[in-house]
Specification:
The protein is 38% helix and 10% strand. It is of the alpha+beta class. It has 5 domains: 174 residues, no CATH class; 156 residues, no CATH class; 41 residues, no CATH class; 79 residues, no CATH class; 62 residues, no CATH class. InterPro entries: DNA_helicase_pif1-like_DEAD, Helitron_helicase-like, P-loop_NTPase.
């Protein structure tokens, strides 16, 4: 596991070491190359001579020598350093420096191998002020270090020569996206640094896997990539948001009245926005959003922890096939954990395995040993609360399962759930009497006055994983309920955001500048009687706020409103579809006859509309029964009058054991298949056996 503390940056020294110092890093390609292998060993030992020749601090000559020869042959940066060596030999007194170029004219979407002349140049004399500021300039001999820019095209090739043997380009600004139908619709046609690294961390059949199989070096690569992305974000904020400032409306008006025109010193400067993940304002917003959900739904009912298990069979199969350990592929661990977490949340919130939920949220952390870990909060529906101790015991237990009755569950609990003294093994390391991490034994579950439940027992900083998680843009915080941020301020104290270069009169003269969401609520209450019956917090449930108009508008969608306004339109569509199913002429006169024949009352229309809505919701994993404000389908609501008669006749024949043969005639679309399904389900629910067969036609095949 690799952990990084503090700032991450890369430095390069001069081409040759100062007097009295030993060569190291890139200098090893230039100084005393006849003894390069020995010099590399000395560099690892801080300049001290190695003791043996065959094995140098664990570095084997038969491995190091071929690697050096390979880099000399194919790596363009090594070739340039070798050229510097040759130039030193020919002109020892000449002063020159090496410039590693930061720009490239090659297409970043293809794997073009760079040449030595494209990546670096040896330049005699002093510095050229016309050079790109991001170019790396290595002087002949100095005691100073040169910092490599994070977006330098050679950043990766210089740091990881064994991973990028051919000197492949790293990230650079302006890499175009591949042209597809989806990409044509996007506003941005270039990829970000995060997208670049996420692309490089994928395993593809037609690409080399040197990077992904490099074990600890891959861990370092992920940490390096993540910190580079964060540093690049912070630099962007520093360079592009230094001009943003904020102040109250009254303060800006006072500046205008005082004749002040310059706003460079007005108000406070923005340092780190709330959109920067992990920043103070971001964390505060996440906390306030969580508290808003608690205020609406009450205290959470269930707190669930979910930790990645490196022994998951999917992980072990994947890693065993490649001869790797779980620590070697933090990217795969994160992706597997995300899939498992999504599946768990689906089971909890969609399948309702613990009861119907009203809301949910989770946050992802990373343990010291490097495994992702989720803390989940569930807010249960009022019908699925756990008010009694018996309800609690149905979903949670601190009892060790009986090994003879359920050996599989016993093994899982023994391996995963026992922390501290092991009652099954008194010689375990955690069984000492001094260990205080034990739970108090209780004969039964109890709920204290402060609503904290005590469960019963019946007598028995990992950086590389966190970096992978962020590079893949997986959420650190998740909540199922949207939270609307409502502004609140005293008169004249609303916050105004402006640029330091703006003039006071230009800011004050902005259209609707003094209007805010809070003031728009007062204006709404003046003209809307229904709004006056609501509190400020309830307004977003029925109205949407337009930032451009600075006003609230009534929501056009909402189950109670949609149903009352649109069921008639839905029923008209049902009539049209029914006419086409009967394959009758669509003339104006015949339509009236068809409508008269259908004899659809208002209740029938509503019923058909509900059936169609239920079909659409079922396709998306939902149902009308999940929403209290929607009308519910009555029992057997899908059966029309004739279907109901047939259903009752057949069911009564089965119940009374009369038997019989029934022939149901009807053309396509009248609901025969639905009737068979309904009969089969009704009988099977009672424990009877139903065999559906066909004697002729396609169905018999």
């Amino acid at each position: 596991m690799l952990v990084l503390h503090g700032e991450n940056y890369h430095l390069m020294g001069s081409l040759t070491p100062p007097e009295g110092n030993y060569a190291k890093f890139g200098q090893l390609y230039i100084v005393d190359t006849e003894n390069e292998l020995q010099n590399r060993s000395n560099a690892l030992r801080n300049g001290k001579n190695a003791q043996t020749e065959s094995t140098i601090d664990g570095l084997k000559k038969e491995i190091i020598q071929p690697i050096m020869m390979m880099l000399n042959a194919v790596n363009p940066y090594v070739k340039q350093f070798r050229s510097a060596r040759d130039r030193f030999r020919m002109n020892p007194e000449e002063t020159f420096h090496m410039r590693i170029i930061s720009r490239s004219d090659r297409d970043g979407r293809t794997y073009n191998m760079p040449t030595a002349s494209e990546v670096a140049a040896l330049i005699p004399g002093d510095f050229n002020l016309g050079m790109d500021k991001r170019d790396i300039v290595l002087q002949h001999k100095s005691g100073r270090l040169t910092r490599i820019d994070e977006i330098h095209i050679s950043y990766l090739a210089l740091q990881y020569p064994l991973l990028f043997v051919y000197g492949e380009d790293g990230f650079r600004i302006g890499i175009k996206k591949g042209v597809t139908e989806a990409s044509k619709k996007l506003k941005k046609d270039t990829i970000s640094m995060r997208q670049f690294f996420a692309f490089r961390m994928q395993e593809r059949e037609n690409e080399s896997h040197v990077l992904l199989y490099s074990r600890r070096l891959f861990q370092q690569f992920i940490v390096d990539a993540y910190t580079t992305i964060e540093a690049n974000k912070l630099r962007y904020l520093q360079l592009n948001q230094t001009c943003l400032r904020s102040d109250s409306y009254d303060s800006i008006k006072e500046s205008e009245n005082a004749g002040q025109s310059d706003m460079n010193e007005q108000g406070q400067q923005f340092v780190l926005p709330a959109t920067f993940t992990g920043g103070p304002r971001y964390m505060k917003n996440m906390y306030l959003d969580a508290m808003a959900i608690c205020r609406h739904f009450g205290f959470p009912d269930l707190f669930i922890t979910f930790t990645c298990n490196p022994k998951w069979p999917e992980l072990t199969r994947f890693l065993k096939k490649r001869g790797l350990n779980s620590d070697d592929r933090p990217d795969v661990i994160c992706r597997m954990f995300k899939m498992k977490l999504d599946s768990l949340m689906h089971d909890l919130t969609k399948k309702n395995i613990l009861g119907k939920t009203a809301s949910s949220m989770y946050t992802v952390e990373f343990q010291k040993r490097g495994l992702p870990h989720a803390h989940i909060l569930l807010f249960m529906h009022p019908s699925s609360k756990f008010p009694k101790t018996e309800d609690i015991d149905k979903i949670i237990s601190a009892e060790i399962p009986d090994k003879s009755l359920d050996p599989d569950l016993y093994d899982v609990v023994k391996d995963m759930m026992i922390h501290g003294p092991d009652v099954t093994n008194q010689t375990a390391p955690n069984s000492s009497a001094g260990n205080s991490a034990t739970a108090t034994w209780a004969a039964a579950s109890s709920v204290a006055a402060n609503s904290v439940a005590a469960n019963s027992a019946l007598g028995n900083s990992a950086m590389e994983t966190g970096g992978s998680w962020r590079i893949f843009k997986f959420p650190i915080h998740y909540r199922s309920t949207a939270v609307e941020k409502l502004s609140f301020h005293l008169p004249g104290k609303q916050t105004i955001i402006f640029k330091g270069k703006d003039k006071v009169k230009d800011v004050v003269s902005r259209k609707l500048i003094e209007n805010t969401m809070f003031l728009a609520w007062f204006e709404l209450c003046k003209v809307d009687a229904f709004a006056r019956t609501l509190t400020y917090i309830q307004i977003p449930n029925y109205y949407t706020y337009s930032k451009s108009q600075k006003k609230f508008n009534r929501r056009k969608q909402g189950f109670s409103v949609v149903w009352e306004k649109t069921w008639e339109l839905l029923s008209e569509d049902i009539k049209y579809n029914r006419r086409h199913r009967f394959n009758r002429p669509a003339s104006h006169e015949s339509s009236f006859r068809e409508l008269a024949g259908l004899k659809l009352t208002d209740n029938d229309k509503k019923l058909y509309a509900l059936i169609e809505i239920e079909k659409l919701m079922k396709r998306n994993g939902s149902s009308l029964s999940l929403y209290e404000s929607m009308p519910k389908l009555p029992a057997n609501a899908k059966s029309i009058e004739n279907q109901r008669k047939i259903y009752d006749e057949i069911i009564s024949a089965v119940v009374e054991d009369r038997g019989g043969m029934f022939f149901v005639y009807g053309f396509g679309g009248t609901g025969k298949t639905f009737l068979w399904k309904l009969l089969s389900a009704a009988l099977r629910c009672k424990g009877d056996i139903v065999l559906n067969t066909a004697s002729s036609g396609i169905a018999s095949l």
